[in-house]
Amino acid sequence: MMRYADVILPLPLPRSFTYSIPIGSEESIKPGCRVVVPFGKKKFYTAIVETVHDKAPSEYEVKEISTVLDTIPILYPNQFKLWQWIADYYLCTIGDVYKAALPSGLKLESETIVEYNPEFEADEPLQAKEQSVLDLLAVNNEQSLTRLEKDSGIKNILTVVKSLLEKNAVFIKEELRRSYKPKTEIRVRLSQAFSTEEQLRKLFDELNRAPKQLVLLMKYVELSNFMGGSIKEVSKKELLQQSAVSAAVFNGLVEKNVLEIYHHETGRLTTFQNTTIDLNPLNTYQEEAFNSINNSFKEKNVCLLHGVTSSGKTEIYIHLINEVIKQGKQVLYLLPEIALTTQITERLKRVFGSRLGIYHSKFPDAERVEIWQKQLSDKSYDIILGVRSSVFLPFRNLGLIIVDEEHETTYKQQDPAPRYHARNAAIVLAAMYGAKTLLGTATPSVETYYNAQTGKYGLVEVKERYKDIQLPEILPVDIKELHRKKRMTGQFSPFLLEHIRKALDNKEQVILFQNRRGFAPMVECRVCAWVPKCENCDVSLTYHKGINQLTCHYCGYSIPLLRSCPACEGTELVHRGFGTEKVEDEIKLIFPEASVARMDLDTTRSRTSYEKIISNFEDGKTDILIGTQMVSKGLDFDHVSIVGILNADTMLNYPDFRSYERAFQLMAQVAGRAGRKNKRGTVILQTRSMDHPIIDQVINNDYEQMVNTELTERQLFHYPPYYRLVYVYLKNRNADLLDLMANTMAGKLRAVFGTRVLGPDKPPVSRVQTFFIKKIIVKIEYNAPMHQARKLLQMVQKEMIEDERFKSLIVYYDVDPM
User: Fold this and answer.
1) What is the 3-class SS of 118-160, one letter each residue?
2) DSSP letters of 413-467?
3) Digit-coded pLDDT (tens) for 432-455
4) Looking at the domain that runs over 109-177, which CATH code has it been given?
5) How does residue 786 score in pLDDT terms, banded at 50, 70 and 90?
6) DSSP state of 379
7) N or C: which end of the chain has fewer CB within 10 A?
8) CB 514 within 8 A of CB 647
9) How crowded is the C-beta side of 649, counted as CA atoms within 13 Å?
10) Is 120 strand, coil or helix?
11) Looking at residue 27, what is its pLDDT?
């Protein structure tokens, strides 16, 4: 009987596809295995087998699976369930989830190869771009489209290749591309002819006339413990280094069939020391919190640990992890930023050693593949420390998920789909395993705190800092008045500069917080007020002084800094606003003797850059650290006495219903970096809005008042946690057509959802990468059946696409936006 497999493709398609299983492979193909399948005319993709059955589809001709990549599944059943939940809840396809979940190295894809036709003779002169492509193919007859595009610098190379194809100048074919290759090492062994001591002694005598070869052989015998009976593996690299002879000498022994070489897979994963230290004892407050969390877990699956900054939450986590792994279960420890993994890795590996694995996007893809494979083996990590993508890793027996700094917006994936929230996905994943979830933070999100107050989650609070260090003193400074009186030095008030000077004199450290990177958010002509804008997006270009370019932070478009205004030819181009780069420049001029570092997206692009910046600051090599919100997230520095918040108003004046909540969280978190060792820290908070209630709440660390105010307003205006939000985004390159599409879809949605629909409106950035964007908001009561709402949304979308006028419409959803 013919067997079939339903497979998931890494494409944004709303369904799985059925393929026939090759005869003889019926037993090896199981749900969760990877197979290579043809799709479309000539493309091949790595698909994941969802189900195996004997029902042939009737609506299309069945193709056969080309290759079986796995005999053992690379997904556990609970991962399938999580994928399906994310696709359903966040209104995306399971193919979107597959693309996000698996490291690229586990996905073979076909690459289009362009091949030169040696018999081609041009009947007419070729265009410059066509000739450029043929010149490259003349050097190397076969090249991938990706390589040609990179080498030629032609942006839309498909058009050029299509033209050459029509002229019969080139051929194209598809080849499978494998991006992951196991890391191997060349190792050495004696050939079978010299496997006994007697044979080896004879060989020593023969090599007396080749002293260097004899030295090399004797060194091999020593390193391999050949005479000792328990033979060790020896690498070629180690043997050459230890014997201090050339590769030619080594090759001579290989040619004589004395030594053999072979490749051994070593892997790329960092191995931590096996020697570990005992856990630090918990203080009274931490012990109480630890016991309260365990008691809460007896009744509730989710618990919120609300502990002030520097209360020692990480130490509580370590004790909980230790308890879970003693039971033979695994732990997933989620962090919002890669920067945090640097510090916390050190603390965890001291206690848990090689039982700890780290997983994040700064690791090369090959390392992520190896972690995935290790998690499937019987030697899997007991603890995984990682960022949001870690929820997709396979776990045998998950017992606990810790979501540290649970309020952070970086847990929410923005683009591309799936636009999932890792905190919510973690809670669902834990429930699938019967595991517990601990949410930890000093400033919980309003929704999480509401869930804890209403009894949905457990709640444990720690209001005392470790070693009873006082919370920092927060001193507000009215920069509006100082600007008017022209008493500001760049972005710094005299009060802040005085405190920085005192800290530096006392050999203490300073953190300066400005939540905007670059040198200046905007360049403006003083004569005619012209502002350079991105040609693809509806935003002004940000000036980056380090590379002397104006750059778009949405699509990456950049141009050199202009010397004159193209509108009026004036030369007075001035910088408006300021980013971390400008702060760095100014602080270096004011304090030339201080060592200054900057931590933002521009300075932390590589895996090691985070670690270097943080370790230099920890070791006291850096006096002043300037940063964006990266510096606010749970980093623990002993000698920071001053924190400067340079401009609180940029956070308060953002057009979003969560702006006050976020402003409080950011300011409270960054303030928490001050005063961590036997001394109360000081926070200088510069603002033009001295009378704003959030400023008072931050100064008094009055989280409860902030939450109560927010909850009152959100209940009144139908926002979370009382209502769920779904943002419906519509995109098109034609602005007029998009207006018609958005108004039509809003009308259809109102016919179904009534007054719950707001819009359509333009989002703050209404054009990105040449696409115009419109946004419709749908508010759904929290107790309403969400699955029914999703069906209605998809029904309206289907109606829109079926309209001939709207075939070019792109619709996507952001459920529970942040």
Assistant:
1) CCCCCCCCCCHHHHHHHHHHHHCCEEEHHHHHHHHCCCCHHHH
2) --SSS---BHHHHHHHHHHHHT-EEEEEESS--HHHHHHHHTTSSEEEEE-S-GG
3) 999 999 999 999 999 999 999 999
4) 1.10.10
5) confident
6) T
7) N
8) yes
9) 12
10) coil
11) 85
Cα–Cα dist 57/65, whole Å: 15
Contact indicator for 403, 439 with CB cutoff of 8 Å: yes
Burial of 68 (0-12, 13-18, 19+ CB in 10 A): middle
CATH number of 4-106: 3.40.1440.60
Give the global pTM: 0.83
Cα separation values, 553 from 453, 473, 544, Å: 39, 35, 11
Relative to beta strand 542-544, strand 767-768 is: unpaired
Enumerate helices (H) and strands (E) in the chain, giving the number of each.
Answer: 25, 35
Residue 654 makes CB contacts below 8 A (sequence gap 6+) with 662
SS3 21: coil
Cβ neighbours around 112 below 10 Å, total: 17
Q: CATH fold of 284-465, please?
A: Rossmann fold (3.40.50)
Output the pLDDT for position 270.
64
| Cβ–Cβ < 8 Å for 646, 491 | yes
Burial (Cβ within 10 Å: 0-12, 13-18, ≥19) of residue 358: buried
Contacts of 171 (CB under 8 A, 6+ apart): 114, 115, 117, 165
Cis, peptide link before residue 281, omega less than 30° from 0: no
How far, in Å, CA of 204 to CA of 194, rounded?
11
Domain locations in the chain as residue ranges: 4-106, 109-177, 197-255, 284-465, 473-517+580-712, 520-577, 723-815
Distance between CA atoms of residues 253 and 240, nearest Å: 13
The pLDDT value recorded for residue 36 is 86
Angle separating helix axes 236-243 and 211-224, nearest 10 degrees: 120
Instruction: For domain 473-517+580-712, give the fold.
Output: Rossmann fold (3.40.50)
* CA end-to-end distance (rounded Å), the chain: 51
Place of tokens 């942040």: 818
Assess whether the previous peptide bond of 760 is cis (omega < 30° from 0): yes
Looking at the DSSP assignment, which residues form a beta bridge with residue 176?
110
Q: For residues 113 and 107, what is the distance between their CA atoms, to the nearest angstrom?
A: 18
pLDDT at 295: 97
Mean per-residue pLDDT of the chain: 88
Q: What is the pLDDT of residues 67-115, one digit of tens each?
A: 888 888 999 999 999 999 999 999 999 999 999 999 888 877 667 788 8
Cα(584)–Cα(311) distance, rounded to whole angstroms? 31
- Residue 315 main-chain phi, psi, to 5 deg: -65, -35
Measure the CA–CA gap between 409 and 346, rounded to whole angstroms: 25
Q: Whose CA is closest to 580, among 511, 673, 500?
A: 511
CATH architecture of 723-815: 2-Layer Sandwich (3.30)
Integer angstrom CA distances of residue 477 from 176, 480, 483, 511, 683: 62, 9, 11, 17, 10
Backbone angles phi, psi at 692, to 5 degrees: -70, 135
> How far does Cα 565 stand from its chain's mean position?
39
Q: What is the DSSP string of 101-114?
A: HS-GGG--EEEEEE
Tell me the C-alpha distance between 630 and 340, whole Å: 9
How many angstroms separate the CA atoms of 114 and 147, rounded? 10
Banded pLDDT at 232 (limits 50, 70, 90):
confident
Give the pair of three-digit tokens for residue 804.
């001939």
Quote the CA–CA distance of 327 and 284 in Å, as a whole number: 25
For 569, residues 6+ apart whose C-beta sits below 8 A from its C-beta are none
Considering only CA atoms, which of 494, 469, 471, 468 is closest in space to residue 481?
494
Place of tokens 């403006």: 524
Give, in order, the Cα–Cα distances in Å from 128 to each of 136, 139, 160. Answer: 13, 17, 10
**Domains 284-465 and 473-517+580-712 are alike in CATH topology:** yes
